[in-house]
UniProtKB/TrEMBL annotation:
It catalyses: uridine + phosphate = alpha-D-ribose 1-phosphate + uracil; thymidine + phosphate = 2-deoxy-alpha-D-ribose 1-phosphate + thymine; 2'-deoxyuridine + phosphate = 2-deoxy-alpha-D-ribose 1-phosphate + uracil. PANTHER family: THYMIDINE PHOSPHORYLASE. The lineage of its organism: Bacteria, Bacillati, Bacillota, Bacilli, Bacillales. One of its GO terms (molecular function) is 1,4-alpha-oligoglucan phosphorylase activity. InterPro entries: Glycosyl_Trfase_fam3, Glycosyl_Trfase_fam3_N_dom, Glycosyl_Trfase_fam3_N_dom_sf, Nuc_phospho_transferase, PYNP-like_C_sf, PYNP_C, Pyrmidine_PPas_bac/euk, Pyrmidine_PPase_CS. Homodimer. One of its GO terms (biological process) is pyrimidine nucleoside metabolic process. Its cofactor is K(+). Residues 345-418 form the Pyrimidine nucleoside phosphorylase C-terminal domain. Keywords: Coiled coil, Glycosyltransferase, Metal-binding, Potassium, Transferase. It comes from the Bacteria. This is Pyrimidine-nucleoside phosphorylase. It is an enzyme of class 2 (transferase). Gene3D superfamilies: Nucleoside phosphorylase/phosphoribosyltransferase catalytic domain (3.40.1030.10), Pyrimidine nucleoside phosphorylase-like, C-terminal domain (3.90.1170.30), Transferase, Pyrimidine Nucleoside Phosphorylase, Chain C (1.20.970.10).
């Protein structure tokens, strides 16, 4: 087989065989196929697309390019959740204990990553003592005995994706449905869960700017998952404005605690229930999505979800008292209000720009080496559709520096007040096949 022939075949819009796709990915991973040929292949794929079968084959070829996690020592159906990114997305912190409270195993491997705030692990590490440096055996035994554990990323997962994603970044081929879908799904499948719930975001703060594009991506990923034997469902949710009110690490831990108590922001609660009911259903614990949602609401009402969060924190060395005493979480030195300059209704809160404002305070990493300040961030006091009077606070800045003019300027530039506006629809669609 020659790479040049496979590039030509894809360029001409023909379907590649499983063997041909394996040849491309194996050759690229081990260095036999150079970047320039892979670039041409990615561009041909960008224009010619792939069939469902090719997409599933590409995904599995990337899974098989490196290590995979074996979770078979954990009893029960392991369901993982993945979000395609967003701002202030606190859902994982809520969903992990919420679902575990229904005896569904949550075996979460998580990374730190770049972004407006830290990843799930950074957020959890704002709890004093909490650590994710546990052995594989300890991880398995925690999940078997307590239904929940989080471990830091281990092993060399999907090296083909790492290499290809970096190449796509500099060859204008990121924005391709087959390439995005296989990239995301390969990482989820290598991480070892039996079933996958996807939260595909749409809007200013998301990868997919329109609901139509998000829907196409969701269908592509659900189809890959189901074609390779992992039950997969997706929710398409709005990321026009940040999710919930908190954007920042310890602020989001507190928001998660409020939500587990049943007192969270309405949108965060709604999305957690939409994703959670799919997780419970796929785990085989409910006869219908409605039944699943009832069970989730019940463990919020009877405090089992909150107790599970305390148990989880204590198991991994953290101080569970933060749940009842959130003042024990890292606190910023300064709180600065950003008042509205006119009467009206909040019409727009540009998610990614507001995320960048939180990053200016130090809530997220600009480079892999950056240090995160776990205490800082933003609290949105108003969301889209809320009425506001001049002088009322739009946002509370939690900062560890006294002068925050740059942050204030960014906030004013990205919150628009108008005469009328309505709260956006949060859950656009549920994709099951
Ligand atoms: N996220 C990924 O992991 N891969 C892509 O291709 C795009 C977004
Ligand atoms: Ca939030």
């Amino acid at each position: 087989m020659r790479m040049v022939d496979l590039i030509a075949k894809k360029r001409d819009g023909k379907e590649l065989t499983t063997e041909e796709i394996n040849f491309v990915i194996e050759g690229y991973t081990n260095g036999d196929i150079p970047d320039y040929q892979m670039s041409a292949f990615a561009m041909a794929t960008y224009f010619r697309d792939m069939t469902e079968r090719e997409r599933a084959d590409l995904t599995m070829a990337m899974v098989n390019s490196g290590d995979t996690i074996d979770l078979s020592a954990i009893e029960g159906i392991k369901v993982d959740k993945h979000s395609t990114g967003g701002v202030g997305d606190t859902t994982t912190l809520v969903l992990a204990p919420l679902v575990a409270a229904l005896d569904i195993p949550v075996a979460k491997m998580s990374g730190r990553g770049l972004g407006h705030t830290g990843g799930t692990i950074d957020k959890l590490e704002s709890i004093e003592g909490f650590h994710v440096e546990i052995s594989k055996d300890e991880f398995v035994s925690l999940v078997n005995n307590h239904k929940i554990a989080v471990i830091g990323q281990t092993g060399n997962l999907t090296p083909a994706d790492k290499k290809l994603y970096a190449l796509r970044d500099v060859t204008a081929t990121v924005n391709s449905i087959p390439l995005i879908a296989s990239s995301i799904m390969s990482k989820k499948i290598a991480a070892g869960s039996d079933a996958i719930v996807l939260d595909v975001k749409t809007g200013a703060g998301a990868f997919m700017k329109t609901p139509e594009d998000a829907k196409e991506l969701a269908h592509a990923m659900v189809s890959i998952g189901n074609n390779v034997g992992r039950k997969t469902m997706a929710v398409i949710s709005d990321m026009g404005q940040p999710l919930g009110r908190a954007i920042g690490n310890s602020l989001e831990v507190q928001e998660a605690i409020d939500t587990l108590r049943g007192h969270g922001p309405e949108d965060l609660e709604e999305l957690c229930l939409a994703l959670g009911r799919q997780m419970v259903y796929l785990a085989g614990k409910a006869s219908s999505l409605e039944d699943a949602e009832e069970q989730l609401k019940e463990v919020i009402r009877n405090c089992k979800a909150l107790d599970k969060f305390k148990e989880f924190i204590a198991n991994q060395g953290g101080n569970p008292e933060v749940v009842d005493h959130p003042e024990k979480l890292p606190q910023a030195a300064y709180r600065i209000e950003v008042p509205a300059r006119e009467d009206g209704v909040v019409a727009e809160i540009v998610a990614d720009e507001i995320g960048t404002a939180a990053m200016l305070l130090g809530a997220g990493r600009a480079t892999k080496e950056s240090e995160i300040d776990l205490a800082v961030g933003l609290m949105l006091n108003k969301k889209i559709g809320d009425a506001v009077k001049a002088g009322e606070s739009l946002v509370t800045i939690h900062a560890n520096r006294e002068k925050v003019d740059d942050v204030i300027e960014k906030i004013y530039a990205n919150i628009r007040i108008a005469n009328h506006a309505e709260a956006p629809v949060l859950v656009h669609e549920i994709v099951t096949e």
